[in-house]
Write a structure and sequence with these properties.
By secondary structure, the protein is mostly helical. It is about 55% helix and about 5% strand. The protein has one domain.
């Protein structure tokens, strides 16, 4: 059985989706549904969203569905940022502690 497009994309980013009944570790997420919605609406805009979480200082563990959703509301519609100024965006996210951005249950 071949992997779906989302799973293949996440493999390339070093992110693994795990079932909600399993405790997740760094670079793992329970956010399959959230990521599917973002990918369906914005296509590869999901890549910038995930890179800003996983590849920035102190945010690697913040791959929560809620965090992914909030960051996508800001970044996914601005795919031009991924093409024109990705290093500036990633640098900005180095200074944003995402653990405080979203209230989780």
């Amino acid at each position: 059985m071949s992997k779906g497009k989302l799973d293949a994309l996440l493999d390339g980013l070093g992110i693994k989706l795990v079932p909600v009944y399993r405790r997740r570790a760094a670079a793992q997420s329970h956010g399959r549904g959230t990521m599917h919605e973002i990918r369906n609406e914005y296509g590869d805009g999901l890549v910038l969203v995930l890179r800003c979480i996983k590849q920035t200082e102190n945010n690697r563990d913040e791959l929560w569905a809620e965090t992914i959703g909030v960051i996508s509301d800001i970044l996914a519609p601005r795919q031009d940022w991924a093409l024109e100024r990705p290093s500036e965006v990633l640098e900005a996210f180095d200074n944003i502690p995402l653990e405080y951005c979203v209230e989780r249950p």
